[in-house]
Amino acid sequence: MKKKKKQLLFIFLISFSLLGQSQEIEKKNAFAISIGSPGLGLEYARKVSPKLNAKVVWQTFKLEDFEKEDLEIKDDVVDLLATIESSIIDLGIEYLPFKNSSFKLTTGLGLLSKVNANALITYTEDVKYGDITITKENIGEINADVTWSGVAPYLGVGFGRPVPKKRFGFGVEFGTYFTSSPDVELTATNLLSPTSNQKENLKEALDTFKFIPRIQIRLAYKF
Predict the structure, then answer these.
(1) How far apart are CA 103 and CA 96, in angstroms?
(2) In the record, which residues are listed under signal peptide (predicted)?
(3) What are phi and psi of 196, to 5 degrees?
(4) Label partner for 98 (CA 20 to 30 A): which of 86, 117, 132, 219?
């Protein structure tokens, strides 16, 4: 009887040990939601090594029909109607250089499927030149459309492990996309029609806008 008890105890201890080992298997995946300058994001991350993680992020944002009235441009007062939207897919790698710190360096490629800004400018009121009055309808309107597209590398720094140590983890990241010059479309109507000839000047002015900020706050769930 004692021998059987010892056997049962041995089997129990072996089973408990194996169960403990199975529970200690490291979870290397995480799902996260984020919000920031690229918009609302959904993320999947995979731990490759103790210091290296890979991730895929889809981010989207849309601000439609944003109105700004009585905007002063030089000596003119105009109304602005703007729409901004973006859709970006990130393929990235995050490196944690310090063992006991969540500080990280991030790099990767952003697939800019659609990053667009559209602005419609109209005069707020009629314009007078001496005794002559030109109605705002006859003055016309200006429509500017700016689009970034293609593949944009990005770099950044932040805090927060892509795959957190505990079940949930919080993180923040600061960086930028490095883009090419945007495509520009400029149209104008009525008396403002000659303004459309300034398309190249506007494009040259936007050549400096080759950096799109990438600021994110994220909440991750490990599984």
Answers:
(1) 6
(2) 1-22
(3) -65, -20
(4) 219
